[in-house]
Amino acid sequence: MSIARVTEISATSPESFEAATRAGIQRANETLRNVTSAWVKEQRVSVENGEIRHFQVNLMVTFVLED
Q1: The pTM is what?
Q2: Which of 2, 23, 39, 62 yields a CA-CA distance of 20 to 30 A from 55?
Q3: Is 51 exposed, middle or buried (0-12, 13-18, 19+ CB in 10 A)?
């Protein structure tokens, strides 16, 4: 039997929601072990002078706890 934990992280990118998601997962893997999945909880954009400045995602990252 395995036990998992879910933690929420936020990531941004000036390019796209996908790039922000990839950056968030990459960073999570640098700190957390056994990352198995993630889902996008929220998406939003930062707008300045009528233009999108960056894309932000809030991710719920699941990782399996070690014995």
Answers
A1: 0.89
A2: 62
A3: exposed
**Rounded-to-5 percentages of helix, strand, coil across the chain:** 20, 55, 20
Contact 15/56 with Cβ under 8 angstroms? no
CA distances from 49 to 17, 27, 52 (A): 20, 30, 8
Q: How many CA atoms lie within 13 A of 25 on its CB side?
A: 13
pLDDT mean values, one per 10 residues, the chain (67 residues): 94 98 97 96 97 98 93
Q: Rounded distance, CA 40 to CA 1, Å?
A: 26
